[in-house]
Amino acid sequence: MNLPENYIPIIIQALVAIGFVAISLLGAHFLGPRQQDSTVNKNKSFECGVESEGDARTPFSIRYFLTAILFVLFDIEIVFFYPYAVNFREFGLEGFLAVSTFVAIFFLGFLYVLKRGALDWDK
């Protein structure tokens, strides 16, 4: 098999990565701690030093999920500003109008969310 010279560094890097993963997994297996009472302590639910209480299926307030969805929505909006911020001079007036329309639509959505009281936790 005759490989071009350009592939040699890629093959070396892949071998080093695979070797690192193999050594890490084997090292963790052989050097890691052994737990004698794995049936009792290992399977207990434990989080942040606080013993668990109640059922895992306790209902959450819908406001929690609504706030999370709104955060993702407006966070994605900010991600779309990055290409415009980097190339705003190349886009010219047409790009400015497109981004202004984009911002206006999201601003109207934000005003709607505020008017509906989705961000008021005291209700």
From TrEMBL:
Keyword NAD among record annotations: yes
Q: Which UniProt keywords apply?
A: Cell membrane, Membrane, NAD, Quinone, Translocase, Transmembrane, Transmembrane helix, Transport
Quaternary structure and interacting proteins, as annotated: NDH-1 is composed of 14 different subunits. Subunits NuoA, H, J, K, L, M, N constitute the membrane sector of the complex.
Give the gene that encodes this protein: nuoA
Q: Does the keyword Transmembrane helix apply?
A: yes
- Report the top EC class in one word: translocase
Q: What is this protein called?
A: NADH-quinone oxidoreductase subunit A
Q: Which residues form a coiled coil?
A: none
Query: What is this enzyme's catalytic activity, as reactions?
Result: a quinone + NADH + 5 H(+)(in) = a quinol + NAD(+) + 4 H(+)(out)
